[in-house]
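Provenance

Sequences were taken from public entries as deposited. Structures were produced by running a predictor on each sequence independently, with no templates supplied. The record for furin from Schizaphis graminum is shown for reference.
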Amino acid sequence: AKSLYLSRNLKSKHFFYLFFQVKWAKQQRILSRSKRDYLTYTQDSKSSKIFATKGGLNDPKWPKMWYLNRGRNMDMNVQGAWEEGITGKGSVVTILDDGLEKDHPDLIKNYDPSASYDMNNRDEDPMPRYDQMDTNRHGTRCAGEVAATANNSLCSVGVAFGASIGGVRMLDGDVTDAVEARSLSLNPQHIHIYSASWGPDDDGKTVDGPGELATRAFLEGISKGRGGKGSIFIWASGNGGREHDNCNCDGYTNAIWTLSISSATQNGHVPWYSEACSSTLATTYSSGSNYESQIITTDLHHECTSNHTGTSASAPLAAGIVALTLEANNKLTWRDMQHIVVLTARPTHLLASDWIINGVGRKVSHSFGYGLMDATTMVRLARKWKNVPAQHICNVTAQVFEKPVPARSTVTIQLLVKECNSVNFLEHVQAKISLTASRRGDIKIDLTSPSGTKSTLLAPRTHDNSHAGFHVWPFMTVHMWGERPFGIWQLTIHNEGKLLATMTDWEMVFYGTILPPEQTHILPTMNINQNLTSKDEHEINFKSGECRVTTAKCLGLLLMLCAIIPYF
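Predicted structure for furin:
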């Protein structure tokens, strides 16, 4: 619509008219966004006077960084990448949060002003606002996990201590769709990785996601960021476990554009705060019970903390591992990175009751995704990685017309997929669902693929008393990664309430490729045969039904490996 604007030239005192065209306008509303750490009642362990350690890294907290240095398949296998000269050099990470203490002595060497901005005050200084409670410490803590300087006799070591680190101050003020969009799209040709440890309230009753502008920023990022290779968005999966929340009701972690990361405790258990959902891709370590260690990182006032917690601490660790992987191969696309995570994540030592083996032989869990991220294996695989084929999208609409789901009953709806618009090998799968319910929290939704993989899209939420139901909500699962889409899909609606629910619409959206990704995989020896050494290079070529072992030591594993090749 064209508008007439009356302006006045104060100097000449003449009026003149300007015509301009409004392409889009929307009233911005303040959004509720929560940081995904949890505050303990224990006092933080802080130290401003630092002393060097004996041997190895001289960062004083290094011996206590159990999630990086335990070995025995009990850490995230970062040291192997460091030993191969990979430190994240050339990778640029920004933390979307409440600010960044850019002059922290353990961060200043890697601080990148081009990856930083203050969206709250609209200036270029991301420094946090200080208060008596240190409520804006979150971003500085996350940044230290990624890129705290190594071997400087200070505090801790970042996973990617050679990477550049920036911060976007955007949570310490009114958060709107426009604020989120500007943050997600900051300098996308310079910033490679955006790490976010926040989201809609983890209260077990909220259903919310990115608005129109933020959605556009995500789409622009994956299509145009990093010179067309795509910005990489890392997201904390959520801390609503105690509230029986489900991260598929969070439109950020539930999006195909984000690499959603969950947490595991020091002993490999599901943390009490963790949310189980089918959109979680992988896991890193974080806090657990009171007797388990937490995450060590930089803190406000140039200090150091041993008490960083929640999925807030998990996402930056993942961002650091991704930064290492990008140094090994900076040609990786955003989808390449997700493929590499799926192929290398380790389910070993992660304890959950819901591990299943999907249709291509991979273990996957609603609590942990495909398992613990493995930095060294990701780096080695990245070096030989060939970019995956182009993404195709297939939409299949089910003929559902007012399908009632009576109280305390289960209804299963089937959808036959015969052809799928060049999607032959699956990546992400969405079920866009519309339903009405007298109480939304009583609904449970399962999706079963033609290969028999059953994925829970929505679990009951005890605090969700909403009458709103769902309107074209895109429930997403990564559990069918690598499977074929053809055959009968089953959507099962469980109504655990006392009143009627009604299914009004259902559309399946399949994302994937026409051909299987052609790769030479370096297998993580710790997962295959403990007698094989890390110096041996064991290559398995996966291509259109071919399984060829190129190292003699792998011959005994041939049958097992061919049985689990993902693209058959």
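The chain has ten helices and 27 strands.
Residues 1-19, 39-55, 522-568 have pLDDT under 50 and may be disordered.
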